[in-house]
Amino acid sequence: MRYIMSAGYAGKGIQDIQPTVDEIVVNWIQCLRERWSSTPKQARDFDIGKRIQFLTVDITTKLCLGESFRCVEEDRDQHAFLDTVKTATPVSLQLSLFPELTRTLYHLTKLAPIRRLLVPSAEDKSGREKGHQQTGAIRNDSSRHAGVLFEPGVAGSDTTSTAVQATLLTIITNPRVYHKLQKEIDSAVNHRPISVPIQEAEARQLPYLQACIQEGLRIHPPLAQLRDRVAPPEGDYIHGYRIPGGTSVGFNSWGTQRDPIYGDDAAIFRPERWVENEESRIKEMKQLCDLIFGHGPTKCLGSKIAWMILNKAIFETLPFAKSVADDGG
């Protein structure tokens, strides 16, 4: 199933997805302006982090299920989806560290009483299955396939939202970076037509925007799981260390993203490192940073979609962050 789906996440498949993403982003921008724009007589405070969550949920459910949850329009957590993710994420993170426990729970869920307690069903009043039911995504035998499509959406909406929020936060709390990025955006808008929302190809022509996003992902990786792999039966060697067969080996994304390859100031948010170093070093840095999406056959299929959303969301929300950056200066 993963192999079949992979074509839709690469090449022309990504461009085919962009109009759907654009439709939701445009609606999101309009809702932000209508509901939360401040006036000379009234300043409006709002939680943009929550609205970014609504955006990513609507995009991923639209792409995965064919119909969004309409969190943006309703300005609320539809079907308690985000609340369910918030509750389930710590549990899934812990389970990912103990594969034996995961296997035990899997076998226990074959018992009807335990299955009713732990496994979602179409009768749930909130959460994942309620969302399936509301969008009409589950239809008899299609439920298994809907689940395969929906699970990446759950993960994708949460991690992409985290990436957008963390990157935006690091930009607006650093006035120097904010004003430099805003200057690049203003120059682009003044010298050539920019689509609304900005298109992926247009955003890629803004080097400092790309550097800010890359640095945001590096300084605050959205996924902290070990993403472990199992050594082959015959064992393996990593940097000269013998790894016995069957050993689970993972990596710490927060640790790897402080590697000396990024420079002596790797702990600091400084987007310039992505444009001022020699090309060969930047290539190595990107390869290391790309590990936050995984590697090989289990690499996140939606990484390019995440980049698309990051480009659009950061570019379009920067005007709303102006007062924050100016206050910080």
Quick tags:
mainly alpha, 329 residues, two-stranded antiparallel sheet, two-stranded antiparallel ribbon, globular
Your description of this structure?
This protein has a two-stranded antiparallel sheet with strand order 1-4. A two-stranded antiparallel sheet has the order 2-3. The relative contact order is 0.13. By secondary structure, it is mainly alpha-helical. It has helices at residues 2-6, 12-36, 48-65, 71-74, 81-97, 99-108, 112-118, 128-135, 143-172, 175-191, 200-203, 207-219, 253-256, 273-276, 279-289, 303-317, 322-328; strands spanning 229-230, 236-238, 241-243, 248-249. Helix 2 (12-36) runs antiparallel to helix 3, helix 2 (12-36) runs parallel beside helix 16 (303-317) and helix 3 runs antiparallel to helix 9 (143-172). It contains 17 helices and 4 strands.
Helix content: 55-70%
The N- and C-terminal alpha carbons lie at a distance of 50 Å
Number of strands: 4
Strand order of the largest sheet: 1-4
Rounded mean pLDDT is: 84
Rg result: 21 Å
Oligomer: single chain
What is the H/E order? HHHHHHHHHHHHEEEEHHHHH
Structural class: mainly alpha
Shape descriptor reads globular
Beta-strand proportion: under 5%
Largest beta-sheet details = 2 strands, antiparallel
Count of DSSP helices? 17
Unreliable residue stretches = 134-150
